[in-house]
């Protein structure tokens, strides 16, 4: 069973066809990057998988649960880091984590664990509003992973992070993957896709136009004497 399954997803916004029949699967323990130009349908795909947007046709399932028919089970098994995630700004870092721990039915110890995991112990009593953009991103990552989700949906996860925090976050995502979680990451930054994912899905105008191992993209680039960005840009045109 795939940890993430999308079958024939269709989504329109008025006259705009955001998704026109998107199907793919991400196995448990697999990491896949979703690449595509602006307006290709990446956020729409992530929002459907997270159960935040209803597709017009097709179905999405995480951990075997249809996200529309079994929303509680699906949401319990996934973690979603939206782009520019905004925690509760008037709560402290610790209070944000405590609130999420209650919603997720986690023990109190999960809060200290998450603070430590993201290296934000010293920020615990600061309000989220007072944090720098990078530290706010660390908190958002902590909130998305504190229940060790089996499916992790990430939108530009390394934005704003300093270099050590990027390294720590990559390690954290990799350790979740090693323990069997599926990682699905949307990014415009090719080096981020290469660091986080073993496979790539290229979407353009609401359709998957290429899918395969990241190594295949690297080989194509090496064969043509190009950078991997050049190969991917061509696939997106
Ligand atoms: N709420 C909405 N109302 C109207 N149109 C929308 C809405 N959300 C998305 N769209 C449109 O659907 C298409 C796909 O948008 P989506 O945000 O999924 O693209 P994306 O690949 O995430 O783009 P980007 O890389 O620019 O963030 C775009 O044409 C967008 O304008």
TrEMBL record:
Instruction: Name a GO molecular-function annotation.
Output: ATP hydrolysis activity
User: Where do the ABC transporter domain residues begin and end?
Assistant: 4-230
Which Pfam family is one of those matched by this entry? Answer: ABC_tran
> Which residues are in coiled coils?
none
Q: What is this protein called?
A: ABC transporter related protein
Keywords from UniProt, A to Z, are: ATP-binding, Nucleotide-binding, Transport
Specify whether Nucleotide-binding is a keyword of the entry: yes
InterPro entries from the entry? AAA+_ATPase, ABC_transporter-like_ATP-bd, ABC_transporter_ATP-binding, P-loop_NTPase
Annotated family: Belongs to the ABC transporter superfamily.
């Amino acid at each position: 069973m795939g940890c993430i399954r999308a079958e024939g997803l269709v989504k329109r916004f008025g006259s705009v066809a955001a998704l026109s029949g998107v199907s793919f699967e991400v196995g448990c323990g697999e990491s896949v990057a979703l690449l595509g130009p602006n307006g290709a349908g990446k956020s729409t795909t992530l929002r459907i998988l997270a159960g935040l947007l209803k597709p017009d046709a097709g179905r999405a399932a995480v951990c075997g649960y249809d996200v529309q028919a079994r929303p509680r089970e699906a949401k319990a098994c996934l973690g979603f880091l939206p782009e520019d995630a905004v925690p509760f700004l008037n709560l402290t870092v610790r209070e944000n984590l405590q609130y999420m721990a209650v919603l997720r039915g986690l023990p109190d110890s999960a809060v200290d664990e998450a603070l430590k995991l993201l290296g934000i112990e010293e920020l615990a009593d600061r309000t989220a509003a007072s944090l720098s953009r990078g530290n706010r991103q660390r908190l958002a990552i902590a909130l998305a992973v504190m229940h060790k989700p089996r499916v992790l949906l990430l939108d530009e996860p390394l934005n704003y992070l300093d270099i050590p925090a990027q390294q720590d976050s990559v390690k954290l995502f990799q350790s979740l993957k090693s323990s069997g979680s599926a990682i699905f990451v949307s990014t415009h930054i090719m080096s981020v896709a290469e660091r986080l994912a073993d496979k790539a899905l290229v979407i353009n105008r609401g359709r998957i136009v290429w899918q395969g191992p990241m190594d295949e993209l690297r080989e194509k680039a090496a064969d043509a004497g190009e950078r991997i960005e050049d190969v991917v840009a061509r696939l997106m045109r």
